[in-house]
Amino acid sequence: MRTIKAGAVTEAVKKLCIEANCDLPADVREAIRRCRQDETFPIARSVLEKIEENYLIAAAEGVPICQDTGLACVFLRLGQDVHIEGDLRAAVDEGVREGYREGYLRKSCVADPLRRVNTGDNTPAVIYYDIVPGDGLEITVAPKGFGSENMSQIKMLRPSDGLDGVRDFVLRVAEEAGPNPCPPIVVGVGLGGTFDKAALLAKQALLRPLDVRNADPYYAELEEELLMKINALGIGPQGFGGRTTALAVNIEVLPTHIAGLPCAVNINCHVTRHRTAVL
Amino acid sequence: MEGLKKTPGKSAGGAAEGVKHVRLPFTKEQALALKSGDNVLISGVIYTARDAAHKRLVELVQQGRPLPFDVRDAIIYYVGPAPAAPGRVIGSAGPTTSYRMDAYAPCLLDLGLRGMIGKGKRSAEVVEAMVRNKAVYFGAIGGAGALLARCVKSAEIVAYEDLGAEAIRRLEVEDLPAVVVIDCQGRNLYEEGRRQYLKTLPAADSCL
Fold first, then answer.
1. pLDDT at B5 over 60
2. Which chain B residues are within 8 Å of A42, Cβ to Cβ?
3. Quick one: three-class SS letters along A73-88?
4. ipTM of the complex model
5. CA of B150: which chain A residue's CA is closest?
């Protein structure tokens, strides 16, 4: 049994909140660079150039890439041989509180969905817990902006809808989102499980590096095909027209019920941020 | 034309056309001279407002009370900036998605609001109110908040400080880059730009 102090969790979360918001991951930068090179439509190219300039300014000056510094989504993979000394939930929230204050990040959390009073410190974090073998604690902070979150959808397809049903639904979500989620987008797809698990899978899909395809060749091929079809829509960067509507499609799957085919599509913008640390 | 001069550059469609300068106050004459797809640089005093501030502004109008700033020939920027770090004027300040303000925008347009900066689609009601009042909808690059913040030379809260990032701010901006998405005639770059791009493709590659 290994002991990890709550204070160490707070420190890690704080640092991850600031770094994730200011420094775009290398795989996302590379995807944007390649799309800019392949883009033939002038306005699309010029938008992608400005997007690249923006993340370089953010990293150089230590300012957030986007003013929507998101709801703080925190994925914890807690080793079953770890004992946390202190309150884990409170430790994560304290890390978010300090990170958003010290990093001059925007506080975008309201305490209640209908009465809408800002909590003032971006807490509480949205925490996803996973218990895994081992004696480490892996923490991933993935600040989620809501311009893109609002364009996400879930559908309980019928088994008979099959592959065509999934294709049609994913394309429809991208089409309906159009210019709203700040394209180029990253498309996370969750297939299977239950209503709620499919949505979680879709969100987890957004954490996978954009240059890594699904390990199952069947789904790797579907990812490539859907990316090509979304980019054939012509929506383009910011919706001004062009080839680059999406940077990647990542699909995650789980076993499901004989009667079901849950399909969730979680959209992210080009600022697909996440940062991981292991304690 | 006063307040509207051209400098060499590329238009949205890539044609060799000038970048247009928009200066506040944004008059009807300036608005009428802009067309969907134009690249513009905006300079002068603009105001920020997003969801919660719009709700309050429209409530004031409904109660017949004065607004905290003059909306006539003004431009509202849909933004909730990140806090300013020490020594900075403002934090990252890119546009938020505009459709959430669609319920409120026609009321402000009818009072003389001339321009809106945001990103994403607008409702038919907003476009109708724009055409009726000769107003323009600009798109700034969503997710380019660090870049856009550099164009902000001063920022002060003029109303609703309790709303934090959603307070109404008076911003002095210089050469804020934007694109005319919907012009006074209701022409829409989201439809036209996409159509133009798809026309450049061999037919088999197109989904439309």
1. no
2. 10, 13-14
3. EEEEEEECCEEEECCH
4. 0.94
5. A57
